[in-house]
Specification:
This protein is α+β, with helices and mostly antiparallel strands. The chain has a single domain, classed as Winged helix-like DNA-binding domain superfamily/Winged helix DNA-binding domain (Arc Repressor Mutant, subunit A, Orthogonal Bundle). It contains six helices and three strands. A three-stranded antiparallel β-sheet has the order 1-3-2. A hairpin with a 2-residue loop joins strand 2 and strand 3. The longest helix is centred in the C-terminal third of the chain and has 16 residues. The protein is elongated and about 50 Å long. The model has no long low-confidence stretch (mean pLDDT about 90).
């Protein structure tokens, strides 16, 4: 993952509404949720929420699929894995022992 891509993903997740929507989609992976369910969970209007959803989509965190009359939103977990790997590799600077506590925390998920 490039630095520019990492910054785009981090910026997209830096808003409470977008972070909560993304976390909700992760909990419903791989099936995803209809856009209406996300709007309802957010408590925002459709138009306000769609702005947040567009930011997540531009960052590659959310993909949309039309299913009948509904738009199903899905979290792209590969993007999150890429970001986590990017951060861990940079943080550890090639020294695996520095990342062992992080890997231990992640393995219990």
């Amino acid at each position: 993952m490039s630095t520019d891509k990492a910054l785009m993903v981090l910026a997209a997740l830096s808003h409470p509404t977008r972070l909560e929507a993304f976390r909700l989609l992760v909990r419903h992976a791989p099936d995803g949720l209809p856009t209406g369910a996300l709007v309802e969970a957010s408590g925002l209007t459709q138009s306000t929420f769609s702005t947040h959803l567009a930011v997540l989509a531009r960052a590659g965190l959310v993909a949309s699929e039309k299913r009948g009359r509904q738009q199903i939103q899905r979290a792209d977990l590969d993007v999150v894995r890429g970001l986590m790997t990017y951060l861990a590799k940079d943080c550890c600077q090639g020294r695996a022992e520095l990342c062992e506590p992080l890997l231990a925390d992640l393995s219990c998920c």
